[in-house]
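ok so i was messing around last nite and threw this chain in just to see what happens. nothing serious, just curious
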Amino acid sequence: MKQESPAPGALAALLPWLFVLLWSTGFIGAKFGLPYVQPLTFLSIRYAAVIALMLPVALLLRAPWPRPGRQWLHIAVSGLFVHGVYLAGVFTAIAHGLPSGVTALVVGLQPLITALVAGLLLGEAVRPRQWAGLALGFAGVALVVAGKIASVPTAALLSMLVPAVVALAGITAGTLYQKRFCPAFDLRTGAVIQYLPCLAVTAALAAGTETLRVDWTGEFVFALAWLVLVLSVGAVGLLNLLIRRGGAVNVASLFYLTPPATALIAWALFGETLAGPALAGMAITAVGVWLARR
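result:
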């Protein structure tokens, strides 16, 4: 299995939208699984399952490992930020009662922060059209989740927002770090290297702060399997491909589409309503992402 050959044109054009669809289901998986386990314990099991799945695959297929030393370190650090810090923040925020839409709005600041930093760290020029697209995208996301923000008690909002802000810092720093120091690596062995530090740190935090109790219900097993196979293997693999092939701002702008896509999935699965402003926000977000990625 060769990892470096470019995808055909039609498939390459579909990869960003497939990534958005798969990544958006992460909040749904968290909603299914978190009633039966605490967040860091949930993530520790998820990381262990990914490693148990990908390590035999990498060995059986004789996937190339990076040269020991700096490359291992860079891949591990990028994984700790992109997966460990980001997911710990998102799952903790949702477990503490912050609606997934509000969490997505906070994380939705990532494209703007990435654009601000990309020029300094990566030398990427952000054109006025891209700035306009980023601003439109954030405005659209705000419209999509405005109703859910109003449902959060003001007194509790600040403490709930802290983990979401940590998640924002993690996914932004990780994306920029990976683009700068390790944009290309084998997706099979790279997954093992990225998730090992996530498992070590998250399991240690879970052992010190949580009960480690798990209710192995059918819903929890389904949520775990979905997050491992669809998110940690499928969506993260696509994210690594997109980081390898595109600019940091282009990749980051896709995260604007996550809240609208999540809202549509929640409407289809759970019957959650979509008001007029939310529908308008989805259209504005789509236009903003189109401008930012041109």
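not much to say yet. DSSP finds twelve helices and no strands in the chain.
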